[in-house]
Queue: 4 jobs
Job 1
Amino acid sequence: MSDPNVLLSSIAALQNSGAPAVDSNLDVAAAQKTGEDFEAFFLSQAFENMFSGVNADPMFGGGAGESIYRSMMIQEYSKVAAGTHSTGISDEVTREILRMQERQQH
């Protein structure tokens, strides 16, 4: 079991650091999903630019079908990359959403 004094001191440290308080009225799960969705969208835009200079391989046909599937592949790459939280974008967006929710309550 965790020591209650350690938990209380860590909560006090978070409150003093300016981090938003997690209240029962804050929708943390929705804020996290929105942050991750935003990061996935941002990364998909970056990946689109990255793949724009890559030509279709004539061995596999290319054509309109490949461009459609490339778009779907980029979307999936973006979702996977956003799920790792490697850029930190989703964490910042989530933090700001929770901060705005907290301000609306006061």
Job 2
Amino acid sequence: MEKRIQARGRCAVENSCCASCQSENQKTFTSEMAVHFPGIEGLNKPIVWIYPRISVCLDCGMAQFMIPYKELEVLQTGSPVEGAPVWLGGTPEY
């Protein structure tokens, strides 16, 4: 059951509005992202691959997505976690 709310008088269903501009003009896309740790020290940390569904506001460009638990743990610790898709650098071996 959808929870009805009113945000600035425009949105009728919870989570149907953009968090930035309150537009209802949103669309969901599939994606793939490589999340990098910042700075020069980030070069020694794993690159975390995520494949979230992204809700994009087609009016202002605001995007929202969730990071799965295992990938989030890599971002919290800066270390690989079993089962999380990460790249540790170097040349792939075939």
Job 3
Amino acid sequence: MAWKTIAAAAATLALAAGCSTGPAAPTNAEANETAAAAPAEPVQNRFDNTMSGQPLARPPAPYQLLVTQATFAEGHVIACHRHTWPRFVYLQAGHLRVTNFATRREYDFTGPAILVESIGQWHQGQVMGPGPVTLVAFEQVPPGLPSNSTNWPPPPPPENPCRPWAR
């Protein structure tokens, strides 16, 4: 409230001196609208499992938080890969389809959304459109490890687990 009193006094003095004060301080009604617009409690999501139902676990301590942001064009395919530890992805915008070759399931996500990727299961993503997808990935990794992902093709066996199945 003190700032309103100070702002009103400054405006009165400035007007008396013939000066402009710039933008007016918010009225009580404007201040009440701003306060009313704030949610009572923030939205929270709790995740105990990956999208394929696996329990969450973290790498051995100590570990680092690796954060990656990427934007992919409509139609782009994120190559088949798997993760050693959980990978949490914030899908800021767009439509992403994740195909899990181990469970033979497809998961569709439209941003904004949170994805908890599967652990040790081969999967890929495809930007379905319209427009690009923007992702921010958060993953816990042992210090110095450049990624939590293993891309196909890994060492043997030579069979490709990243191939479509009959639907």
Job 4
Amino acid sequence: MKLKIKSRHFGELEFDEGIVYHFADGLPGFEELRNFIIIDDKDTEPFRWLLSIDDPAVGFALLEAKLVAPELYGEFPPAETSSSVVFVIAILGRDPERLTANLRAPVLISQETRSGKQVVLNSDKYETDHRII
């Protein structure tokens, strides 16, 4: 079944419901939003965009953890990361000279189960505003 949403940044999007990822618990601070799509935009690579279809005004810039903190994969059981990609949420501020990422709360996305979750790590070795540039 085809779905349509209108996004401020990407305009009207039509997509197959088979590409929707379900977050059973939502994301911290956005628990009511449970269904998302991932948008790959050639103009903003290597970023990907996690866009809520429950509220298309809400979206997050994602970077694969292997690009900024590959050690995050070691925080999860191998069985979990073998079928999932670990992402971090990038914080894009007004200053293009300062780009940070939240390493303390990575997002795991499973292509296999079309599900996702954000995990808050109980470790001081990861920052919520890890500077990338």
